[in-house]
Design goal:
By secondary structure, the chain is α+β, with helices and mostly antiparallel strands. It is built from nine helices and 21 strands.
C-alpha cells in the first residue's frame, strides 16, 4: 500500500465525488483529502427528487462505502428484478428482450431511487469520517472552485485562496445544456421529459424501455406512495424540433403514454409535472488532463470523472454507473502506486474499454432515432428478437449493463 502523504482535491460533492472521497479516505489512510463544493453545507440535499438508476455493480460499491439504499428505512429505493425492452409499434413480430435477475443468478439487476436519498447518506458518511480525522480530511462546502492550473508536479486549486495539491479530481458534472463544450460533443436534437407516473396494474420490480418512432421512453419502478399506489419514474425522449409532448395537456399526455407501453407496465393514472432537459453527448477524449502545453510540468495531475468526463444520452441509464466505476478504478490505482503519474496513465488505459464502449453504444442508439432510413425500425426489431433468441449473448449484455467492462 502506498504510504505517501499525497494531498488530493475532490471538486464536486455529488454522488461520484463523495464516493471517490470516501473510498480514498478508507483505502489510502496516509492521503490528505479536501472536498470542495459550491453548495452550502446546510442545504437539504435529501429533498432532491431527481431519479437515479443504479446497476448491481454500483450498489455493491456503495455497500462497501457503508451506503445501502435497498436496506434503508422508509423504502427509499426500489429493486429492479426484471427489465423489458421492446419496440412500439412492433415492426417484426413481438420483438422484445427480457432480462431477469433470477435467470442471471443475482438478487436484482439494480435499483431506482431519488438523487437526495443517495446523496444524503453519502454526505453524512463523509462528514462523519472527516470529523473523526480532521487532520487529513477536510470539507469546503460553499466554496466554488474558480480555476485549476498545473503547478510544478501538482495542481493549483483556486477557491478564493490558491492551494497546491498533488492531484485534483473534478467530479462536477451538471446537465448537458449547462455544460461548457468538451472535445467530443453532439446535440441530439432530442428532449427528455421526466417526472413520476402513478400506475395501476404494474408488474412490481419491472423496468420498461420502449423504442418509439420519436425516441426511447422508459418507466423505472419506484417504491409505492403512502397509499400503497404503484409508481414509476418516467423518462420520455422525443425530438426537439417537432416536440409531440410540449403542447399536450395532462390528460392528453396520459392518453398517449397509455398507448406507448406494453400491458405489463400497467395503466398510467396520473403524472407529476414534467420537466424538460435537452439531450446530447459531451465527453473528454481522456480522463487525465494534460498540462497547458501538453509537455510541461504538472502534466496529468487533473482527472475528470463522471459527468465531468462524459455526459451521455439516458437511453441506457448508465451515466452515474460509469462515473462510480471511474471513481473505483482511480482509487484502486492510486492505492498501490509509488508514482502518481504512472498510476494515472494506468487508469486511463484501464478505463478506456468500458468508457468508450458505453459512449459508443449510447451514441449509436441516440442517433438511430434521428435516421430517416427505410427499415430502420425493422432493423431495431430484428436486433431485439435476435438478442432474445441468443441466451449467452443476452447474458453477456446484461452483465455489461450490471458491472461494465471488467
Amino acid at each position: 500500500m502506498n504510504t505517501t502523504a499525497w494531498h488530493l482535491a475532490v471538486v464536486g460533492a455529488g454522488p461520484v465525488g463523495l464516493a471517490l472521497a470516501l473510498h480514498a479516505a478508507r483505502l489510502m489512510p496516509h492521503a490528505h483529502i479536501t472536498v470542495f463544493d459550491a453548495r452550502p453545507l446546510d442545504r437539504d440535499v435529501a429533498a432532491d427528487p431527481r431519479t437515479l438508476a443504479l446497476n448491481l455493480g454500483s450498489l455493491q460499491f456503495l455497500q462497501r462505502l457503508g451506503v445501502t439504499p435497498l436496506q434503508a428505512a422508509g423504502g427509499q429505493a426500489q429493486a429492479i428484478t426484471q427489465v423489458h425492452i421492446s419496440q412500439q409499434p412492433p415492426s417484426w413480430g413481438q420483438a422484445e428482450v427480457r432480462l431477469c435477475a433470477s435467470e442471471l443468478g443475482v438478487p436484482h439487476l439494480g435499483a431506482v431511487l431519488s438523487y437526495g436519498s443517495l446523496l444524503a447518506p453519502l454526505q453524512a458518511a463523509w462528514l462523519a469520517l472527516a470529523a473523526a480525522e480532521p487532520q487529513r480530511l477536510h470539507t469546503r462546502f460553499g466554496t466554488p472552485v474558480a480555476a485549476l492550473k498545473a503547478s510544478g508536479s501538482g495542481v493549483e486549486v483556486d477557491a478564493g485562496i490558491a492551494e497546491r495539491f498533488d492531484l485534483a479530481v473534478v467530479a462536477e458534472g451538471g446537465v448537458f445544456a449547462e455544460q461548457a463544450r468538451k472535445a467530443l460533443t453532439h446535440d441530439y436534437g432530442q428532449t427528455a421529459w421526466v417526472g413520476t407516473a402513478t400506475l395501476a396494474g404494474a408488474t412490481p420490480g419491472m423496468a420498461f424501455e420502449r423504442f418509439t418512432r420519436h425516441g426511447p421512453a422508459a418507466l423505472l419502478p419506484l417504491p409505492p406512495d403512502a397509499q400503497g399506489q404503484a409508481r414509476a419514474a418516467l423518462v420520455w425522449c422525443v425530438g426537439t424540433a417537432e416536440d409531440p409532448v410540449r403542447e399536450l395537456s395532462d390528460a392528453q399526455r396520459l392518453a398517449v403514454l397509455n398507448t406507448l407501453f406494453p400491458p405489463e407496465a400497467g395503466r398510467v393514472l396520473a403524472l407529476s409535472p414534467l420537466k424538460a432537459f435537452p439531450l446530447g453527448l459531451n465527453a473528454e477524449r481522456t480522463l487525465v488532463e494534460s498540462g497547458q502545453d501538453g509537455q510541461g510540468s504538472g502534466r496529468g495531475r487533473i482527472v475528470r470523472i463522471g459527468n465531468a468526463a462524459q455526459t451521455l444520452h439516458p437511453v441506457a441509464g448508465q451515466g452515474l454507473n460509469l462515473g462510480l466505476r471511474d471513481a473505483h478504478a482511480l482509487v484502486a490505482a492510486l492505492r498501490w502506486a509509488d508514482d502518481m503519474d504512472s498510476a494515472l496513465r494506468r487508469v486511463e488505459w484501464a478505463r478506456a474499454p468500458d468508457r468508450w464502449g458505453m459512449i459508443a453504444a449510447t451514441d449509436f442508439l441516440a442517433r438511430s432515432f434521428t435516421w430517416q432510413l427505410p427499415g430502420a425500425a425493422t432493423a431495431r426489431g430484428l436486433g431485439l428478437a435476435a438478442l432474445q433468441a441468443l441466451p449467452p449473448v443476452k447474458a453477456w449484455v446484461a452483465r455489461r449493463m450490471m458491472f461494465g467492462t471488467r
